[in-house]
Amino acid sequence: MHWLLAADRVAPVDQLAGSVFLIETSEELPPATEVYRMLRNLGERGLLAAFPAALVGRAKAWNFDRRLTPQEKTGYAREQRAAITRAFAEYAPAAVLVFDVDLGHTDPQLIIPYGGDVRIDAVDRRISVRY
């Protein structure tokens, strides 16, 4: 995401307005501070406020080069969630955040093609996707 922002390759706010934001961290296990800063940068550009909701992939809390204990995995996931929650609270406080979705760099993994329709029902705690 940093690279896309640095290269100015992110769609303008008016093109993203009303879309659902998909976010997940990678197998590189970025620190929560870095995740917050990436989202802050989107927030400063007005991008986070364009999204009424975000689907947040369950944090991948291990890789073969960095094997975390169960307690470290839990702490890492908690820190990731806190960083994302903080950024949205500051820049898009009305957005609905859905955490621990099985998408992105995690196991098991759902395929979420971009450009489809997604509906998030926060009251009934349901997500439906039409491709």
Automatic annotation (TrEMBL):
Pfam families in the record: Peptidase_S66C
Superkingdom in the source lineage: Bacteria
Residue ranges annotated for the LD-carboxypeptidase C-terminal domain, each copy included: 10-120
Name by which UniProt lists this protein: LD-carboxypeptidase C-terminal domain-containing protein
Protein's organism: Micromonospora lutea
Organismal lineage: Bacteria, Bacillati, Actinomycetota, Actinomycetes, Micromonosporales
